[in-house]
Design brief:
It is built from eight helices and six strands, in the order βαβαβαβαααβαβα. The chain is an alpha/beta fold. It has one domain: 3-Layer(aba) Sandwich (Rossmann fold), CATH 3.40.50.1820.
């Protein structure tokens, strides 16, 4: 099973397209909806949904993936649920770059402070990051510097921030599903 978390633009038709593409790796793709504007509530809701689905299918291989803000959540929820993640252009600091777009961006700082410190050390090697060189929203060089000590980084030369076409990375998604949950 693959959990897909949309980015900030939750109503974009590109989200449905990504789900359809992911179905080439696993026919069981589950979109996890969240508001994008209330971070504390979002974390609780996403964690509850993913944990519930995992408990209903405890022996099924699982992967969580997302783009942008969905990548931010995929890394954290993957860690908390013990499943591997594949993140595309993750927005690592929404508390800084989502000002004026969400109601309480400071909640992201609060979430970071309440999460397990240095969780990336414990999650090392279980998250894979795909960054686009043509990202028009985030500085992916800074993202690479922050994440490369913990995760493998794959550069995509074609896609923009929203990663309309993830097909070049479907084999990796399929491979990661076979990584055992912890």
């Amino acid at each position: 099973m693959i959990f897909y978390l949309h980015g900030f633009d939750s109503t974009s038709p590109g989200n449905h397209e990504k789900v359809l593409q992911l179905q080439f790796s696993d026919p069981d793709v589950r979109s996890v909806a969240y508001s994008t504007i209330h971070p504390r509530h979002d974390m609780s809701q996403i964690l509850k949904q993913v944990h519930q689905q995992l408990s209903l299918s405890p022996n099924e291989p699982a992967l969580i993936t997302g783009v942008g803000l969905g990548g931010y959540w995929s890394e954290r929820i993957g860690f908390l649920c013990g499943i591997p993640s594949l993140v595309f252009n993750p927005n690592l600091h929404p508390e800084l770059n989502m000002q004026g777009r969400i109601e309480r961006p400071e909640e992201y700082s609060d979430i970071a402070g309440k999460c397990i410190s240095n969780f990336r050390h414990q999650y090392k090697g279980r998250c894979h990051v795909v960054l686009s060189r043509n990202d028009d929203v985030l500085d992916n060089t800074a993202t690479e510097i922050e994440l490369s000590p913990f995760y493998s980084i794959i550069w995509d030369e074609q896609q923009s921030h929203k990663f309309k076409d993830i097909s070049a990375h479907l084999a990796l998604a399929k491979e990661l599903r076979s990584v055992p949950s912890i």
